[in-house]
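To close the section, here is one more complete example, presented without commentary so you can practise reading it yourself. The ligand is zinc ion.
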Amino acid sequence: MSGLPSCFVCGQPVIGLVGQDTAVDTYLLRGGERDQEAVRAKAYGEVHLRCLVESAWGGFWADRLTANLVEARGFRTVAQDGQVSIYRNDRQRENVVVSPDGWVAWVTDDALALAAPAETGVLLPMRHELNLDLGTNSRLAAHLGAALQRDHAFPLLQLVVELDVYERLTSVTALEDGRLEAPTGPGAPRYSHPDHPGHFTTIASYRREFPTTIYKLLTEAGER
Ligand SMILES: [Zn+2]
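Output:
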């Protein structure tokens, strides 16, 4: 067992990768019948995007997120093409794409400016600290620890495979050259923590993918 959060749909670990994973929280709930059902069914928390979309809860959470963005947070609707809606916060220069099936993506104008064309869409570079609690999965912890010491890096897809969540990915392409790196530079944290075996502090470097149609809507949204 890893110490990572479990997906509320499939029960498998959620790594916390942008474009692959998300979280829906109870503060978005409104007190209706379906809301109470979500609480009873524990249909909230960390989730693989793919699982959310394929579950019975995708549409419900898309509704609740949209209501929160527009009514509570003042995002304005900038695009609705029947497939997806885009909500924008002008001050933060940030858009949120919401699909009626529950697929959701947050992206700033700055992040969007780094898009590079790919086969079926565009890829945006991602780089952020990623803390991993591998729990009692000592085999994976040993692999990761050894690779970070030897190569200062570990393939992200290997992590995905060893955690048995490859089938839960939304985009394999986005992770193809992805890696976990040991933090470097002055003041950087150590990647391993002797008092907490199985805990790792890494820098995750990978990409996120947007379909061309959505990318186009997003670039237009930034100009409005
Ligand atoms: Zn899942």
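Once you have examined the tokens, check your reading against these statements. Residues 110 and 186 are 27 Å apart (CA to CA). The chain has a mean pLDDT of 95.
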